[in-house]
Description:
There is one protein chain. With 170 residues, the protein is mainly alpha-helical. It has helices spanning 2-65, 69-94, 101-131, 134-159, 165-169. 0% of the residues are buried.
Amino acid sequence: MSYFEQLHTKQKHTFILVCINFALFMILFAGLGYVFWQSATLVNRLKADLDKAEQAIADLQSRFQTMDTDVIVERLVTTATERLGDSITQVIEDSDFAGQVMQVSEKLDATHDMITKTGEAIQGIDATVKELDTEEMAQLVSYHILKGLGDGFQEAAESRKPNSPEKEDK
C-alpha cells in the first residue's frame, strides 16, 4: 500500500503544481491585458493631441496664405505720408518768413531728402514683402510646432505610464 500512497501523494503534488501554474498564467494574461488596454488608451490620447496640433498648423498656414502684402504696404505708405505731412507742417511753422530764405530752403531740402529716403525704404519693404514665401514660412512654423509637440508627446507618454514615479509624487 505504500506504493499507492506514494503515487497518491505525487498526484496531489502534481495537481497542486498544475493549479499554481494555471493561477500564475491567469495573472500573467491579466497583466498583459491591462498593459494592452493602457497602451491603446495612450495611443488614442496621443492621436487626439496630434489632431489638435494638425488643426493648429492648418490654421497658421491659412493665416499666412491670406496675408495680403498690398494692405501692409498701403499701411506703411499711409503712415509715412502722415509723418511727412507733419514734418512739412513743422518746417513751415518753424520757419520765419521774415528771416533768411536760406534756412527755409535748407529745411525744405532736408524734408525732400527724408521723402526720398522714405520712398526708397517703402519700395525696399514692398520688394521684401512680395518675396516672402508664405508656404515656406508655414512649413517652418509647422516644423517647429511639431518638433515641440514631439517632445510634449514623449512627456505625455511618460506621465501617463502606469505606476510611474511622477504620478506617485502627485
